[in-house]
Design goal:
The complex is a heterodimer of chains A (481) and B (203). By secondary structure, chain A is an all-alpha fold. Helices cover 77% and strands 2% of the residues of chain A. In chain A, the strands form two sheets. Chain A has a two-stranded antiparallel sheet with strand order 1-2. In chain A, strands 3-4 form a two-stranded antiparallel ribbon. In chain A, strand 1 and strand 2 form a beta hairpin. Chain A starts with a helix and ends with a helix. By secondary structure, chain B is mostly helical. Helices cover 69% and strands 0% of the residues of chain B. Chain B contains nine helices and no strands. Chain B is elongated, with a radius of gyration of 29 Å. The model of chain B has no long low-confidence stretch (mean pLDDT 84). Classes of the chains: A mainly alpha (481), B mainly alpha (203). The interface between A and B is large, with 44 and 31 residues.
């Protein structure tokens, strides 16, 4: 008993470390007060680095599962955890100066961010439907609070409340679906569920699966479960929006892949059509919804809906190539979106933040650095060659075509063309319009993040792209072994 | 067996109708009362399947704590529920449609479950008869399910932090007790000796 406990602990070491360090930071913050917010943020970044390092160190022991299979530590989980740590770390870093300037600087913010990361870690390494649910709740609950963090702002409170109520609804859907799966199979861990399903597949399971997919689709904000996204993106403080847009999306997508191709991989006939529909509707809603937006955060919300559609296309293929494409797509999207939000955070005039797309007019003359970075990121997210976003799209399109989803691929390609319009409109505003009032000089972290992210979006850095592709490939194969 | 079936149908019927009344009641305080009835009948259902510990928990935690808290909130917040329900009729058709779809789905599920009743896969794990409920839960809660137990603890921690972050305000100008200051007060700060002439007062 004691020995197996030690083994469990070793496998769960990253999560245990993260949980203990987070509680330590919480206590330190309470003792030192809100003055310590900056210090706690830096310590939180160190914690995330430690989390990723421990996850990587666990690779040496090979894949393993702890707590009767509830926590799986395989290459897929490690890959996801490292990307999540990077995404969460960068967005926390971006938040610091914004929070100071807006007088929101409180030590609870990085602590909540770490707790959300803990939930994401549980999600991506879940091997049991209870672990799936607990991870999602831990992550979502922290995010609801973060969205409402600016409690004196009506819009922020509204965003938090809306997110909470709709999130609770989606959790209900998910739980209902999971309980039906439990009812159909009599087990909660993925292996036993797969074994029970191999004997007999029931209608109860199929309906449960569809409910569970609906609940998960809400978390990745795939249409038609996207209603909350524009309002929450717009209302939440900008660094929170960046946080929401990066790591949680990746985690939910990774969980999606783990659940669907893991225990339910045999039943691709049951879920493929649902995912294809979700992907198609998301792309349609995303690109057409974005056309009418004038607020850049709302625009990014619709852009994320469309991008989730493309990522789901990889999942819809249901093959190893598909999951590989999904991981590559989500990683590149995560890095790009952080850069875009760094640029949005740089949109500050003397009298405060501005968020309208028109405020970007003539940015090339007032702030050429940010203008170049934002243009490159927009071209990358639009999927134009030779930017990284093109490589990402290439992988998911190839996977979908290989799996015979020609109609979806054609629809998605048309969606890319429509989508290119509003990304290019921003580029045009930046370079060819009369300059609006300039922005104040952005802080160093914001500028460096924007430049770094833009540099990664440009394929000169093959140093980055090739390792990413091979690592994602290894991670995807872990799900299929 | 027949007695159990009768008890089940009565309890289930009351639970469902009470749950309906929670939504339908005009007065929110009555809604909470109906909710309490729902909890009680559900506890009865738990007893029927032999999970008496869960039944007790439901009564103690949900009726004793959660429902009372609801009552406090409903009574203290002056929410005009009649106004909140203004759009109710407007959304009724869509809601009813979704409810019907859900009902049909559940009927399908029930039918398919009934059809495959003999299959081992569709049966819930048996309740151990040798141990009492509490022993059975206690044997696995901190061992096999320790991960979920700890995860639930983290979720509660987030809820606690969230409640504090969103509601705690340090308002200016509020006089708070400062024990250190109280104890550290010197005699000459606190007491002033004044000589007062007879019949003149201090002013």
């Amino acid at each position: 008993m004691t020995e197996s406990f030690a083994v469990n602990f070793a496998i769960a070491a990253p999560e245990v470390f993260l949980a203990v360090a987070t509680m330590g930071l919480l206590v330190a913050g309470v003792i030192m007060g809100d003055k310590s917010a900056r210090l706690i943020t830096w310590l939180a970044l160190a914690t995330l680095a430690g989390y990723a390092a421990l996850a990587l160190a666990g690779l040496a022991n090979g894949a393993g599962a702890a707590f009767s299979g509830a926590l799986v530590a395989d290459r897929f989980a490690v890959f996801a955890k490292v990307v999540i740590a990077i995404g969460a770390g960068l967005t926390l870093l971006l938040s610091d100066s914004f929070m100071q300037k807006e007088k929101l600087s409180r030590f609870e913010f990085p602590v909540l961010g770490l707790l959300a990361v803990l939930g994401m870690g549980m999600m991506v390494s879940a091997g049991d439907i209870i672990a799936v649910y607990m991870g999602i709740e831990l992550q979502s609950l922290a995010l609801y609070v973060m969205a409402a963090f600016n409690r004196d702002s009506l819009r922020s409170s509204e965003a938090g409340l809306k997110y909470f109520v709709l999130g609770a609804l989606s959790s209900g859907l998910l739980l209902y679906g999971l309980s039906l799966i439990f009812g159909a199979t009599g087990a909660t861990d993925f292996d036993s569920i797969a074994a029970a399903l191999a004997q007999e597949e029931s209608l109860m399971f199929t309906i449960g699966l569809v409910f569970a997919i609906s609940g998960l689709a809400f978390k990745v904000s795939a249409a038609p479960f996207h209603m909350w996204t524009p309002d929450v993106y717009e209302g939440a403080p900008t660094p929170v929006t960046a946080f929401l847009a990066a790591a949680p999306k990746f985690a939910a997508m990774a969980l999606f892949a783990r659940v669907l191709v893991g225990p339910f991989g045999e039943f691709i006939g049951d879920w493929q059509q649902v995912i294809v529909a979700l992907a198609g509707i998301s792309i349609g809603v995303g690109v057409f919804g974005a056309l009418a937006q004038s607020n850049i955060k709302r625009l990014m919300a619709y852009s994320s809906i469309a991008n989730m559609g493309y990522a789901l296309m990889g999942l819809a293929a249901g093959t190893q190539n598909g999951v590989n494409g999904l991981l590559i797509y989500m990683t590149i999207y995560l890095l790009s979106v952080i850069g875009v939000f760094a640029c949005i955070l740089a949109m500050r005039r003397k009298d405060g933040m501005v968020e309208q797309i028109d405020d970007l007019a003539g940015l090339s003359q007032t702030n050429p650095g940010i203008a170049v970075a934002l243009s490159m990121l927009m071209l990358s997210v639009a999927g134009l060659p030779p930017f990284a976003g093109f490589i990402a799209k290439l992988y998911v399109f190839m996977a979908a075509l290989d799996a015979g989803l020609v109609l979806l691929a054609v629809f998605a390609a048309l969606g890319t063309v429509v989508g290119a319009f509003y990304y290019l409109r921003i580029v045009k505003l930046i370079w060819f319009d009369e300059p609006a009032q300039g922005f104040v000089r952005p802080g160093r972290t914001v500028a460096y993040t924007a430049f770094g992210s833009a540099a990664l979006a440009f394929p000169i850095l093959v140093v980055f792209i090739f390792p990413l592709i091979s690592q994602a490939g290894a991670a995807a194969s872990a799900l299929f072994s | 067996m027949i007695l159990q079936a009768i008890a089940f149908w009565i309890l289930a019927g009351v639970a469902v109708s009470a749950a309906f009344m929670v939504v339908a009641a005009r007065n929110p305080v009555r809604s909470v009362m109906w909710l309490i009835l729902t909890f009680f009948t559900t506890a009865g259902l738990f007893v029927l399947i032999g999970a008496e510990f869960l039944a007790m928990l439901l009564v103690v935690v949900y009726v004793g704590a959660v429902a009372v808290l609801f009552l406090f909130v409903v009574m203290m917040l002056d929410v005009d529920f009649v106004e909140l329900k203004q759009g109710f009729l407007q959304y009724m058709p869509v809601g009813a449609l979704i409810a019907l779809i859900m009902l049909a789905e559940m009927a399908f599920v029930g039918a398919s479950w009934a059809a495959s009743r003999g299959e081992a896969a569709a049966q819930p794990p048996a309740i151990p008869v040798s141990a009492s409920n509490i022993e059975a839960i206690g044997a696995v809660l901190y061992t096999e399910y320790v991960y979920f137990f700890q995860a639930a603890g983290m979720v509660l921690l987030v809820a606690m932090i969230g409640a504090i972050v969103l509601t705690l305000r340090h308002r200016e100008g509020v006089k708070r007790q400062d024990i250190g200051k109280q104890v550290g007060r010197k005699r000459d700060e606190a007491v002033e000796l004044v000589d007062i002439e007879q019949g003149e007062g201090i002013g």
